[in-house]
Amino acid sequence: MRTVPSPSFEGARLVQSRVRNYYTLIALIAVMFAAEATMHFTHFTWSRWIVTITAAVATILAFGAGLKPADFGLGPSTYARGIRWATTIIVVVVAAIAVALAIPRLRDLFHNDAYRTLPWALTSAFVLIPLQTVIPEELLFRGIILGSLLRRRSTVVAVAIQAVLFGLWHVVSSLGLTASNEGFSGAVGTGTVGTILGILGAVAFTGLSGIVFGWLRVKTGSLLPCLALHWAANGAGAVAAAFAWQLG
Questions:
Q1: For the chain, what is the domain count?
Q2: pLDDT one-digit tens code per residue, 8-31
Q3: pLDDT tens, 215-224?
Q4: I need a labelling partner for 172 at 20 to 30 A (CA). Which of 12, 13, 62, 81 fits?
């Protein structure tokens, strides 16, 4: 005769499953931040790709653990809507950047030492930034983390948690922000205080960006608008930096 598990047993097993999933998510976040630090504090060729590799492996493991394409915002039913939103976002952001470049006082904000030449800016915008930044970060934050949290928490809580993590994610990458950007260094300085203000500003800005990305992901059900906005800000921004240098 088949034994039917008692409700208390099923409840205990559900609790254990949730605790195990949270531990797994925390472990992933720790690995992510370690990968980000490794990428920025080492100068090996392979370390440039460590976040990309981490995102790829984490995505495979997440699917193996039970997440579905819809949890990533990659469900087939969302493709058409996602493409419409993504196209609109890119057009609007690129147009806004073009207008800003035409205003001399705003042009200095685009002066980034990393993108002084147009060929390198184009390579970065269409190859390196998508593969090393945009796709990995969106898969990790708006895919795995947000998708996992939405299964267990309210939308507001899930979006808020991933936004805070996204802001903290940029602490390391913002360490040299004021030194490499003339517009920011002119506003807050390049000393210790300027560096701290640059970090706080970057964390606050990217945290708020994380809310926008999370809202887009939930509103459209698609990861494509998030990818589009992230690329438009970073990729189009890199090309804009090159043009800003050329325009003097």
A1: 1
A2: 545 455 455 555 677 888 999 999
A3: 999 999 999 9
A4: 62
Which of 45, 233, 47, 28 minimizes the C-alpha distance to 143?
Answer: 28
Q: What are phi and psi of 42, to 5 degrees?
A: -120, 165
Separation of alpha carbons 228 and 220, rounded Å:
13
Quick check: is 159 in a domain? yes
Report the predicted TM-score, pTM, of the whole model to 2 decimal places.
0.85
Residue-level length of the chain: 248
Establish if 2 belongs to a structural domain. no
Q: Where on the phi/psi map is residue 181: left (φ > 0), alpha (ψ -120 to 50), or beta?
A: beta
Which domain range does residue 144 map to? 7-246
One-letter amino acid of 120: W
Are 55 and 171 spatial neighbours (Cβ–Cβ below 8 Å)? Answer: no
Query: What pairs with residue 171 in β-bridges?
Result: none
